[in-house]
User: Fold this.
Amino acid sequence: MLNKSMREQLLRNFLHYEMEKCDKGTWEHSLRVGKLCELLALEMGFEKPEVSYISLAGLLHDVGKVFMPEMVNYPGKLADKERYMISYHPQLGSRFITINWSDLPAQVFEGINLHHERLNGTGYPYHLHGDELSYAARIVAVADVFDAMSTMRPYRAPLSMYETFKELNNPGYDPDVVLALLKRLRNMDDKQLALNF
Ligand SMILES: [Fe+2]
Assistant:
């Protein structure tokens, strides 16, 4: 019988293989989001084991995309049908993790399932509001958007910090998490910001 840390390692290895096979960019984004979630949770005063669970939620947030590689790697702009299908990746990912790693805590499932929800109800797939969103979901949402906007994408250059924080200043994001991000960035050196793949 595998112990918990062995099972978590197995999960990470599986994900590395499957996600990198699906799309290297998504895997690298997931690694950065997982690390940033850990830093944000620490900055906000969370302690172990919460910090590890929030970090794991960040690492796994896009795991549902491994089931739709043709959509992730779709050449050009997604049509309405494909966009609709890909909008199910949070539910698909959270369901997959629930079935296979049911003993993980709720923070992990919520962080995956709700990372595209926004505090003002403009997110998806459930259009939840405010208190309906757990702290894990709020942290993963900010880390995801920050990384997605501030890094190079195949179709555009990285957006500026001004544009990124203009988006994060939107009422859909938790201001405490955004403040933690600003504090963390101020204290980070280049070494901490760089991830080696
Ligand atoms: Fe996502």
Notes: The two ends are 31 Å apart (CA to CA). The longest helix spans residues 24-43. The mean pLDDT is 88.
